[in-house]
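Repro:
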Amino acid sequence: MTTKPIALTLGLALLAGCSAVKKSTIRPDYEQVDKQRVKRLAVVTQPLPDGQQAVGDLWSLIARQYVNQNRDFLVKEHAATSGPLDDAGIQALCVNGIEGVLWLHPQVKRTQNGAEAAVQARLVRCGDGEDVWSAEAGGSWESQDPKFRERTEQYISQFGPSVEPYVVPSYKLLMATLNTLPNPQLTEQDIDEKIELGE
């Protein structure tokens, strides 16, 4: 008799505990304005997570690959920088057909078995610098997860062993955050271009 309420309470507690995303917003006029206009993106991570260039590069690549594979955007460029990023810096990334900049502002701290990570993410429209989407997320994850073994090895070979403790926490945080991005409307030409990206 009491099994259903207990199961429901447990299920709700698990859902609440798993949610890394604290807040996510999309412009109210997204459907009319940006859905057809902001498709080609550059990703920038600034400041560097835990002060490390390799971890910043890891974050930007994870975001690029994840968005290209799981959202309808076309992420063409990615970078990580320690320097300040202001409106002029964002607009400087708006070249070669880039229509928006996905700015990841991380806070990362190593723990004994993993990392505590948080991100403030913004999708900024090129031209006028208006936010199209934003999200805040955070959590703490262990560095070891058998489901991510192959992915971790791939990133270690690309960025070096210093990124190993950051791969799983970074991926889990970014996956949850980037899943709240809206999807733009692609034309047939856009779809062909996305296929050519090969990610």
